[in-house]
TrEMBL record:
<keyword id="KW-0067">ATP-binding</keyword>
<protein>
    <recommendedName>
        <fullName>Iron-sulfur cluster carrier protein</fullName>
    </recommendedName>
</protein>
<comment type="similarity">
    <text>In the C-terminal section; belongs to the Mrp/NBP35 ATP-binding proteins family.</text>
</comment>
<dbReference type="GO" id="GO:0032981">
    <property type="term" value="P:mitochondrial respiratory chain complex I assembly"/>
</dbReference>
<dbReference type="InterPro" id="IPR002744">
    <property type="entry name" value="MIP18-like"/>
</dbReference>
<comment type="subunit">
    <text>Homodimer.</text>
</comment>
<dbReference type="InterPro" id="IPR034904">
    <property type="entry name" value="FSCA_dom_sf"/>
</dbReference>
<dbReference type="GO" id="GO:0016887">
    <property type="term" value="F:ATP hydrolysis activity"/>
</dbReference>
<dbReference type="InterPro" id="IPR044304">
    <property type="entry name" value="NUBPL-like"/>
</dbReference>
<keyword id="KW-0809">Transit peptide</keyword>
<dbReference type="Pfam" id="PF10609">
    <property type="entry name" value="ParA"/>
</dbReference>
<comment type="similarity">
    <text>Belongs to the Mrp/NBP35 ATP-binding proteins family.</text>
</comment>
<dbReference type="GO" id="GO:0051539">
    <property type="term" value="F:4 iron, 4 sulfur cluster binding"/>
</dbReference>
<dbReference type="GO" id="GO:0140663">
    <property type="term" value="F:ATP-dependent FeS chaperone activity"/>
</dbReference>
<dbReference type="GO" id="GO:0005524">
    <property type="term" value="F:ATP binding"/>
</dbReference>
<keyword id="KW-0004">4Fe-4S</keyword>
<keyword id="KW-0547">Nucleotide-binding</keyword>
Amino acid sequence: MPEPTPETLTETLRRISDPATGRDIVSAGLVESVQVRGGLVQVTLLTDRAHAAAMEAVCRQIEQLLAREPGVLNVAAVLTAHRAAPSGPATQPAAGAHAHGAGQRPMLLPEVGAIVAVASGKGGVGKSTVAVNLAVALAQQGLRVGLLDADIYGPSLPRMMGLSRKPDLQGDLMKPIPAWGLSTMSIGYLVEEETPMIWRGPMVMGALEQMMGQVAWGPLDVMVVDMPPGTGDAQLTMAQRVRLAGAVIVSTPQDIALLDARRGVRMFERTSVPVLGLVENMSYFCCPNCNHRTELFGHGGARQEAARLGIDFLGEVPLLLDIRTTADAGTPIVAAAPESPAAQAFAAIAARLRQKLPVGTQAAGPRIVVS
């Protein structure tokens, strides 16, 4: 199925009226941009504070209308007020312009050498634990590493890093909070731990863009992004607003988890993001008393699935109590017990991942990591 173009989708938007003037939103000059990548669509609308509430309804209409178009996988409409809305017709995108084309917003995080999304098709597979420990392991291997918690609805980074304070400011930018050799940022630093984030898609995307574009990250070799589970708004934002080096998919061995992991792989393929490999978490359980090995969820399913999909298998992580207790205590196992079997498993996966990243991330030597 051919991918829709910004031009055809812009024409479709003429069916929606501006609540203030009654004209269609394109002729009224409200459509700032229409971006398309791999079936993921983002529409940016111009508005001001006085009309923002009314425009929320327009956003919903846009998402419902364009979601019915052939070749469209996901739609997000966002509001912006960074300049006054023009009185004339909207400027149309250049022919063939897509998410990275001329006239579009600049990509975020330009000083980061490689951005890696750690993702899963479903929750409950230990993706955040893998993301945190991979990030610390990469830092232990000598890289300047950032860790971004992109799960707006369920941020877990503050608890797993042992942090509870708000970030400091550097001019108009927030400063990432350092921990375990990483530069970190999470929406969980800005709200109380038990505060529910009852937000619609455009607000989620706006918050994620702020954590990328309004944080003084500085030059980094690698940024690890702990993605929320599934294939929704956060994935759309990451695919369109940064140049992802690739994605790491986390799964457990059983068939139902692998089915969801398969969806995650296909989603990144559809958005032209390379899948760097698959990690099997909770691969097996070793009794701490007798060392007997039990494969609670089966074993080797992720390796077989990686072979079937034609992607690399990065490694397996055992199901160990220490991984859970150190995460709950805010001391990732890679930092708390670097010689442990669990830490060694994460270090081996990080080393394989590092070899797949751009050459600039290969040069740094080992260094000591402190909290």
